[in-house]
Each structure stands twice: as structure tokens, then as C-alpha cells.
Write a structure and sequence with these properties.
Layout (H helix, E strand, L loop, with lengths): L14 E4 L14 E5 L9 E6 L2 E10 L2 E5 L8 E3 L3 E12 L2 E4 L2
Antiparallel strand pairs: 1-2, 2-7, 3-4, 3-7, 4-5, 5-6, 7-8
Length: 105
């Protein structure tokens, strides 16, 4: 994903980023646009934008056996096991792909 997510103006407002790789295909194709809510709560099964270990990730947040993971939908990418030191930068609430809009909860 590209974009500057930290600014003093509108820090709690949703913002748009472009998907720059195939890690979240087939649901999120490369070059699709996602809308991120920076004040959403991270729950199991949501698509999230997270900073972990100095890297920003767009992945699916999954909890299995009390362990938190970031999962790429494209299975060529490995799962990331999270410890408690990650920052939720936002929750994906919408996708715009080929002029078709999809909403997420």
C-alpha cells in the first residue's frame, strides 16, 4: 500500500490507499483502492492495515487458539504471527476495483 497515513489534519478521518502487490488477491487485486477507517477496532476476520516490527502490512487479521496472525489471501505469502507489540493503523471498510465498490464491516 502507498500513502502517508500520519498527519495532524484529519487523523481520525478515513483515507484511501492503493494496493501495490498481489498478496491479497483474489479479493483485493493489485491497483485496487481501499478505504481505511483509522479508528476502527481490530477483530477476528477483518481486513486490517497494521504496523508490526517497523513494517506496514495490509492483511486479514485472524485469531486461532489465542494466537493472532496476519494472513495474506494469496497463499504464496507466509502467515505472520503477531505478538502484542503492533499498531492498528486502520480497518479496511471499502474497496473500489474497476469502478465497483464493495463495503466491509
Amino acid at each position: 500500500l502507498i500513502g502517508d497515513i500520519h498527519s495532524d489534519c484529519g487523523a481520525s478521518e478515513p483515507y484511501a490507499l492503493q494496493v501495490t502487490d498481489d498478496s491479497m488477491e483474489p479479493e483485493f487485486k493489485k491497483n485496487s483502492i481501499v478505504i481505511i477507517d483509522p479508528v476502527g477496532q481490530c477483530t477476528d476476520g477483518q481486513y486490517v492495515f497494521i504496523e508490526y516490527d517497523g513494517v506496514r502490512w495490509f492483511r486479514k487479521f485472524v485469531i486461532r487458539d489465542d494466537i493472532q496472525y496476519l494472513i495474506a489471501l494469496n497463499n504464496i505469502y507466509p502467515e505472520i504471527i503477531l505478538d502484542n507489540s503492533f499498531d492498528v493503523l486502520g480497518i479496511i471498510i471499502q474497496k473500489n476495483e474497476d469502478r465497483k465498490i464493495t463495503h466491509y464491516k
